[in-house]
């Protein structure tokens, strides 16, 4: 029997950059009674709270259940866990266990490289940004390019690069300009730039250590499991993986898992 259910977020637990839907929240709460739940994504900590934790709170998750929820932020280069101090939820009780940040120089070089590549290829969409939004974001242990920013509508994001061809071109050019970094395609419009080795292999390796489990104890769900996708390193590790294309696929699988667990 598996001990850990681990998930990518965008297009695995939700519609990209939106809070998880009711059914996913309800299924995850039920899963917390039997499994350690470990979302791992390129997103920043605040987005984990908005997209997952806040929805679980709305659906009645207990603080004891939250102690079995493990947030592996920025591809697992940051790890947060909840320390319950009573029955009432307090966001201040999230403890950051570790963080491996980039240097200021690395952030500057990655930012310069991605912008240069996107501009050169005609994929710099600054004119489409919402007020106060940004295309390139420093997430401490990674830098993320989001072609239309974080606030763009879901429809626009899904339409921008559905076959990943635009981002594949940007990644190829970035590798020419700054080969000392790795670049992974994720979500609907994103590229995550990291130092070599700081991808989901790093995150999943630390998950194994922090939760004291073996690879065989984990079942992973992701939508970008193809070579070059940000879930592919998990596949390469030999961790059992379910490839999904939407949160509906994930819900279907979780209903089956709970059907033989509860």
Write the layout of secondary structure elements.
Elements: E1 4-7, H1 22-31, E2 36-39, H2 45-58, H3 63-66, E3 70-73, E4 78-82, E5 94-99, H4 104-121, E6 136-138, E7 143-146, H5 154-160, H6 165-177, E8 182-186, E9 190-194, H7 200-211, E10 218-222, H8 232-237, E11 240-243, H9 247-261
Parallel strand pairs: 1-2, 1-10, 10-11
Antiparallel strand pairs: 3-4, 4-5, 6-7, 7-9, 8-9
Helix pairs in contact: 1-9, 4-6
Task: Describe the structure in your own words.
The structure is a single chain. The longest helix is centred in the middle third of the chain and has 18 residues, at 104-121. Strand 1 (4-7), helix 1 and strand 2 (36-39) form a beta-alpha-beta unit. The protein folds into 2 domains: 4-99 and 198-261, 3-Layer(aba) Sandwich (Rossmann fold), CATH 3.40.50; 104-194, Eukaryotic phosphomannomutase, cap domain (Hypothetical Protein, Haloacid Dehalogenase-like Hydrolase, Chain: A, domain 2, 2-Layer Sandwich), CATH 3.30.1240. The chain has helices at 22-31, 45-58, 63-66, 104-121, 154-160, 165-177, 200-211, 232-237, 247-261; strands spanning 4-7, 36-39, 70-73, 78-82, 94-99, 136-138, 143-146, 182-186, 190-194, 218-222, 240-243. It is an alpha/beta fold and 262 residues long. The chain contains 9 helices and 11 strands. The chain is globular and about 55 Å long. The strands form 3 sheets. Strands 2-1-10-11 form a 4-stranded parallel β-sheet, with no helix packed on it. Helix 4 crosses helix 6.
